[in-house]
Design brief:
The complex is a heterodimer of chains A (about 325) and B (about 240).
Chain A (H helix, E strand, L loop, with lengths): L1 E10 L2 E11 L4 E5 L6 H8 L7 E6 L2 E2 L4 H6 L1 E4 L11 H11 L6 H11 L15 H13 L5 E5 L7 H14 L4 E6 L2 H7 L2 E6 L2 E6 L1 H8 L5 E6 L2 H10 L3 E8 L5 E8 L6 H10 L4 E6 L4 H13 L4 H7 L1 H13 L1
Parallel strand pairs in A: 3-8, 3-9, 6-7, 7-8
Antiparallel strand pairs in A: 1-2, 1-4, 4-5, 9-10, 11-13, 11-14, 12-13
Chain B lengths: L1 H13 L2 H22 L6 H4 L2 H15 L4 H6 L2 H5 L5 H18 L2 H13 L5 H28 L3 H25 L2 H10 L1 H7 L7 H26 L2
The chains are: A alpha/beta (about 325), B mainly alpha (about 240).
Chain lengths: ~325, ~240
């Protein structure tokens, strides 16, 4: 559906987007993740034809955004970072205006009413946009993007500045839209992207530093999951038992955090899944497991690590090989807090 | 283009802007007409070239153009316009035509004056009137297109307005300033830029095709430059 190949954009000497390539299939829900100023908005602005590109190409449904902008733009609904609304118009006037501007073929009134219903704008249709709250303006922005029922929706930080209730509403809305549209959204809030998106593209300093599913991303960085265990019994006995389990590489005692039990961090040898063996051995010895958790990195940690690494000039692949010990250190610290 | 035109025209009339603009022109034209008529001259064309009308054109037309392209940029609405499947030319033309419509409406009373005069006086030449009306509209179009370019260069309405007034005043005074230098080629060059002198010639009761062509070319040039200015920002 969307093909971005070796896209670059420079402002004078500053390279805002650096050789970015990705392909997005029909029906995908993609998250652009990156710290502020990473180039997310610039990439989106280029994909929608608002900004020009310095190098590379963007194709929407086969139409090049530079050579064939009208056909390409017809297929995209865009919500920029700040909703592009005329504050001196009522919601209805504005949506009718955008309908006329986009030269949509559907019958006007039913189409707008349907969209207003979908984004829950019905109650404010005749109010001036300048009198609306941020949340409602955001919805007007989304409504505007939906006019003409474009195949692709590009939403730049759709939940920024909203209250928690509104965030949940917008998220649900995006999830619903994702069923019929290809959605690309950007965010610097990780849980949001994790919740809504099937695929995440992490961008830092204008470069793609990771592109995968949320699950693969968290697995890829901590290839061998260490286990966090809380078991009843004495520390020394337990340590011996755990060390005797085949496939265990190391056992680190974390001390007692609950009366009559002890916590451990158990690291398996590469490629071993030790969970079943650990559980079996402990129960044979009459010990009860109170907690067994796999120390998978959550997206927050992955994001921080990846952006830090790319800042230091390291590559993602290196992280997979060298990053293990650090990874478990980090998760350990977090749990102790 | 039509959507933009409709929206901009409506925006003029939902704010006091167009009303003030039109009201001042009506008042000044009324004063001018009263003066001319009470002097016993059965000629409405004088209204167009009266000092008050000229002053209103110089100082009020920038009010129409100042926010045309600058405000969209400040409010970030340009992101919606430029990512919609329409060309930049259509967007710019829609805005130009909206401003031009308000400008043209400001001269509606002259039609009534002309009808009054033709009812009372014995010999009234409608062609002279139409020639002068054409002159004022073409000059207005040229001035608006200049204001349009300036509004594309800034995000601030105030700066846009002041720069546009400066431009108009300079154009108004250009032959006078050129003559002060005494240099022949400067005077000759200034004549080409003196839009208001061209405008005045429409009061000579002679239809000058070169002047019509001149004003149309100026308008086309500056509309083209506005389109380029909007386009250029994309490549910045």
């Amino acid at each position: 559906m969307i093909e971005v190949s070796s896209l670059s954009k420079s402002y004078g000497n500053h390279l805002a987007v650096d050789n970015v390539s990705f392909t997005i299939n029909k029906g995908d829900v993609i998250g652009f993740l990156g710290p502020n100023g990473a180039g997310k908005s610039t990439i989106m602005n280029i994909m929608t034809g608002y900004l020009s590109l310095t190098h590379g190409s963007v194709k929407v449904d086969g139409y090049d955004i530079v050579d064939n902008p009208e056909q390409a733009k017809k297929r995209i609904g865009y919500l920029p970072e700040i909703p592009p609304v005329y504050i001196d118009m009522t919601v209805r006037e504005y949506l009718y205006f955008m309908y006329d501007l986009k030269k949509v073929k559907f019958p006007k009134k039913p189409h707008i009413n349907e969209i207003a219903k979908l984004v829950k704008l019905e109650n404010v249709m005749d109010r001036l946009i300048k009198n609306l709250s941020k949340g409602y303006r955001q919805r007007v922005g989304i409504a505007q993007a939906l006019i003409g029922n474009p195949d692709v929706l590009i939403l730049d930080e759709p939940t920024v500045g909203l209250d928690p209730k509104q965030i949940i509403e917008i998220r649900n809305l995006i999830a619903r839209l994702g069923k019929n549209h290809t959605v690309i959204l950007s965010s610097h809030i990780l849980s949001e992207v994790q919740e809504v998106c099937k695929r995440i593209i992490i961008i830092n300093k204008g470069k793609i530093i990771a592109d995968d599913t949320p699950d693969n991303l968290s697995q890829g960085l901590s290839t061998d999951h260490s286990l966090h265990l809380r078991v009843t019994g004495k520390e020394e006995d337990l340590k011996k038992i755990l060390c005797s389990v085949p496939g265990v590489k190391s056992v680190v005692s974390l001390g007692s955090k609950e009366a009559g039990s002890c916590d451990f961090n158990v690291e398996p040898k590469t490629g071993h899944d030790i969970r079943a063996a650990v559980s079996q051995r402990l129960s044979e010895r009459g010990k009860t497991i109170l907690i067994m958790a796999s120390n998978e990195m959550n997206l927050e940690q992955i994001f921080l690590r990846l952006t830090e690494m790319s800042d230091n000039g390291q590559e993602f692949f290196m992280a997979q090989n060298n990053g293990e010990s650090e990874v478990s250190d980090k998760t350990q610290e977090e749990e102790e807090i | 283009m039509k959507a933009i035109y409709k929206r901009e025209l409506k925006a003029y009339f939902t704010s006091p802007l167009a009303y003030v603009f039109i009201a001042v022109f009506f008042l000044f034209e009324g004063i001018a007409f009263t003066e001319i008529y009470s002097a016993g001259v059965a000629d409405v064309t004088g209204v167009f070239f009266h000092l008050l009308t000229m002053l209103a054109m110089i100082f009020l037309t920038p009010v129409l153009t100042m926010r045309l392209l600058s405000e969209d940029r400040r409010q970030k609405v340009d992101q919606a316009l430029l990512t919609a499947p329409v060309g930049i030319t259509g967007i710019v033309l829609g805005k130009f035509l909206a401003a031009f419509t308000v400008f043209a409406l400001a001269f509606a009373p002259t039609v009534i004056f002309q009808i009054i005069v033709s009812a009372l006086a014995t010999s009234v030449n409608w062609l002279f009137y139409l020639n002068a009306l054409l002159g004022v509209l073409l000059t207005g179009a040229a001035l608006i297109s200049i204001g349009l370019v300036i509004s594309s260069l800034t995000e601030s309405q105030a700066i846009s307005c002041i720069l546009t007034i400066t431009a108009y005043v300079s154009l108004f005074a250009i032959t006078y300033i050129a003559e002060l230098t005494g240099q022949k080629f400067i005077i000759a060059a200034a004549e080409y830029l003196a839009i208001f002198d061209v405008f005045s010639r429409f009061g000579d009761s002679v239809f000058h095709i070169p002047d019509v062509a001149y004003l149309l070319s100026v308008t086309a040039l500056f509309i083209f430059l506005s389109v380029r200015a909007v386009e250029r920002r994309r490549w910045a």
